[in-house]
């Protein structure tokens, strides 16, 4: 088993309390950061570590910090609005080891000379929010947050803010709108948050897992972190394995670990449920393109997954076995985007509404053969035309599934029922 | 040549091969417009920041990632190469239009917007010929009222957010908002809440489809049947530019006609919808004459009526002298009519008694600046103010569109101070609200001025003001007592801010000067601006906000007892408005377009009066008491000029054929002058304007043609001191 | 009616943020905790404290799915039906709940006890299928577990009903 970084102490009883967290080296990284490093040196350290954003886009974290405009006040937003279907790592990090996150938030705030940091926790995750709030309260009481932290002269305020049910708020600019007390519409870019973000100030925004990784990098060094993973995708990350596997769950692995290992290794997924055949995998949350079973040997790093035709995304690996009706599964995912579209832009709002109706019609056996190409054309009219990436995301499963499993769509139109799965026509009935 | 072009401070680009040069920061959409290329838009509105929501304005820009881009969110850059008609662009636009149409009901035949609908028009020019959508449309109950003046048809709505963004960005009242999200998103209000903004009609106007409709115009006309005439709103002193839309000699609606210097493209609901009196069936259509004293007003011919007026006025003059005749003019008739009115009274009848209902301003001019009493700044320059102080002034209620300009200043960083007896709409956004006791505005002005004078490093310490104010500390004591300690302290704090402000703008309502204890409101606030150096600096200024469409014009034209046209002193001075109404020495009243009965406690104008003439459009309380009533025309039925609150002289134009039987006030005055032995030779208002221009320093050189469609702001010419 | 204490908490929150308006979401939670949903009184209280219009507050509240527009049942059951739970058979469990609670998804039972909702991915895909009862998770659902849950809720309500029936306050309640 490879060395764990972020989840190393995740199962230590009581690690969510400050006293236990400290027994396991908690807040030593913060002390080291404040004592031994100038803020810019931490930015350099993180740049050198090769850490890339764990929220979805995989942007180099240190570089993002380096872009921050010089004016003040500056803000930090920690994006804990985890909502991507198939992703459940941030919830675990918040619920089980909230101090690790809080420590990461403080170090990052120091590195970026931020005076107010916000931790935006998804509304549905009430327990996670309570855990993070308690950790913040404990950190305040211990002098890790507040005025003149550990005598360093550095002061920071941390506010835990709960969302209230809107996937779009995981998009960084929508999250800031939401924090400012508005509807979570994404903002025009440019200006980018690093220049004009929260309350108009320069803002650094990072995902929960990204910031949870920072303390370990400060404690052990950039070279140590960079020694995990591949040349371009350094370090480890948490893969959220779900769907038709025997042992779904969160597994922290070095980047570049083959997909097959994650799914089939006894330490991880343990193979396909019921030992059925693998049909398809969504490698990075439901917004990424579906990969066929032939891609099961793809190494899970940013570059290899892109080369295979998808994205590493948020690390949500969704596995489907041979009895999965792809049309029904895609319909389910498309409903998500229809319901979570903020409604601001036309293609996403109206397009997802139309796509769902078409997919329903096909799934329920009333589709037309021309609907399949119509789906593709609607996707083309959404993708790249919508205001933010949610529109693009809504089309990924449709276009990739038609490419991989077109015969299943055609079967639905021709036969009026599913080709595989529980709703497939039984051979006896077919004979009638 | 090429180098010269590069140094012109502009950004150079080509759009569809056409070279364009525009100022930096211009959006590609606006640059294309300048080049004569239409890029369709729904969410974008030139008076609001870009939103980028509708995804209609796609273009392709070379060397930019991921085509297409949206033209309304992309600023130009040097050397940019834009294509608006590539296959990628056209397909994307067709895609967006198809999306917009999947949930749009095709009820165009009964839609008010049909014929001027951007969805219809852009579908014709940029859309797909047919839809591929053959599923269930989204349905809502057909129009729901959002106020008693507006209806909302959510099925027609394309969710472009123009209306809701008007409410958040421009009127800042958040009256209409987006409710729900995604495909369930709709425009609306909180449950049971009405959209009762005075600016609500603007949302109907900027709605690109027929989603928001006006109850008043609903089903009244098809756009192509309308005759559209550019004119000026007659409902307050702002002088918003309007387009009067007429069908078969009836006003169907008034729309805004953007004048950046005045209305910024907006029109309040009063301006938009309060024109019923023009179409009123009760309009006077024939002169009325009271043939017996105490008898009823009876219809008469114009000859009889005018003859009677000439005869009776001559009789009064012979019996009591010319000074027994008084003339009360109007704040809503044109400059030309006001000018002829005082000319008739002063020259043809020989009386010095000319006035109208107005605020109280001592003397013809403010003695500190030597200028006539009026706003010292342009409306457009409000945006440059650092502090806006509203003393006894509530533009939302009285000059609504100025409220929007103040909000624009607020967005640009201005601090707003409301000093008022009652709450105002701006309180919510104000930096500070200072609540005054009843009739406390005069005291407040006094305290502001007194505190300012005590500031060190005062920019313009004027000895005469210091002597007047600091020498009469008793008045300051009284003001303190009236306002109370807390308010006094707040006012003194405000005075310090004004004294230090980069550009403070001090506004007060004209009519507030008439309240008890407010006789010095105007001079004190004027002095406050002068001593604190808040005059003649960009964004700074002071002045009254007048009441009516031509309140300032009436003053300019000498409808004042002590002033001839051009603020030349009248000698001897005549009786004031109040004196004329109450003095027994005045036996005959000539009233044009005014309703003084409303300003008398018992409404009785007849006391001591032997003869009253009224020119009016309706049988008002005043007209009912007249001996002769002459039917006049409204602003929509005649030509002429009006002068707004920041001294824009603007043209109103005849939009309707005159009501049969009624005549324009200037025509009536000319006929009467002739009967009184003064045959004037004006062919029309144009000639009267030329005569005004020849003798009035504020109208110098104006001609009817020079007023154009947007008017001219005059007043920059130095006025000769008397 | 929103209590003065609640409004005071909203004011304190508003002061905590750089801009008062940022407190609109937590303030709505506070109001909803008192009213059960975003009632007219809730809208007015939040609008008053944060100097917003009620329409503006309504606009924010209706964007987010966790603010209820109508009074929900005493137990709000949210069942995830996104892709990972779907692959693990959530649809059958939703139907089972519909049968047991005798309401369809999206409905509140006439006795006001239950509201059954389907919801988007709850970040519990590794323990799918999953539901939340009043925002607390129940994971690794099976048909047996669903039956046990419903039995438990029914028992709770029954106990509550009996204790209320006995209490003098309940008997003379208004």
From TrEMBL, chain A:
Keywords: 4Fe-4S, Flavoprotein, FMN, Iron, Iron-sulfur, Metal-binding, NAD, Quinone, Translocase. It comes from the Bacteria. Coiled coil: none annotated. Its cofactor is [4Fe-4S] cluster; FMN. GO terms for molecular function: 4 iron, 4 sulfur cluster binding; FMN binding; metal ion binding; NAD binding; NADH dehydrogenase (ubiquinone) activity; quinone binding. It is an enzyme of class 7 (translocase). PROSITE patterns: COMPLEX1_51K_1, COMPLEX1_51K_2. It catalyses: a quinone + NADH + 5 H(+)(in) = a quinol + NAD(+) + 4 H(+)(out). Its EC number is 7.1.1.-. It holds the Pfam family NADH_4Fe-4S. SMART domains: NADH_4Fe-4S. InterPro entries: NADH-UbQ_OxRdtase_51kDa_CS, NADH-UbQ_OxRdtase_suF, Nuo51_FMN-bd, Nuo51_FMN-bd_sf, Nuop51_4Fe4S-bd, Nuop51_4Fe4S-bd_sf, Soluble_ligand-bd. Residues 327-372 form the NADH-ubiquinone oxidoreductase 51kDa subunit iron-sulphur binding domain. Belongs to the complex I 51 kDa subunit family. NDH-1 shuttles electrons from NADH, via FMN and iron-sulfur (Fe-S) centers, to quinones in the respiratory chain. This is NADH-quinone oxidoreductase subunit F. It comes from Thermogemmatispora tikiterensis.
TrEMBL record, chain B:
Residues 226-282 form the 4Fe-4S Mo/W bis-MGD-type domain. Residues 9-88 form the 2Fe-2S ferredoxin-type domain. The keyword Disulfide bond does not apply. CDD domains: fer2. GO terms for cellular component: membrane. Keywords: 2Fe-2S, 4Fe-4S, Iron, Iron-sulfur, Metal-binding, NAD, Quinone, Translocase. The keyword Magnesium does not apply. Residues 148-175 form the 4Fe-4S ferredoxin-type domain. Its EC number is 7.1.1.-. Residues 88-127 form the 4Fe-4S His(Cys)3-ligated-type domain. It holds the Pfam family Molybdopterin. It catalyses: a quinone + NADH + 5 H(+)(in) = a quinol + NAD(+) + 4 H(+)(out). GO terms for biological process: ATP synthesis coupled electron transport. NCBIfam families: NuoG. Belongs to the complex I 75 kDa subunit family. This is NADH-quinone oxidoreductase. It comes from Thermogemmatispora tikiterensis.
UniProtKB/TrEMBL annotation, chain C:
Keywords: 2Fe-2S, Iron, Iron-sulfur, Metal-binding. Belongs to the complex I 24 kDa subunit family. This is NADH-quinone oxidoreductase subunit E. InterPro entries: NuoE-like (IPR002023), NuoE_dom (IPR042128), NuoE_N (IPR041921), Thioredoxin-like_sf (IPR036249). Pfam families: 2Fe-2S_thioredx. Its cofactor is [2Fe-2S] cluster. The keyword Iron-sulfur applies. Gene3D superfamilies: Glutaredoxin (3.40.30.10), NADH-quinone oxidoreductase subunit E (1.10.10.1590). It comes from Thermogemmatispora tikiterensis. [2Fe-2S] cluster binds at residues 80, 85, 121, 125.
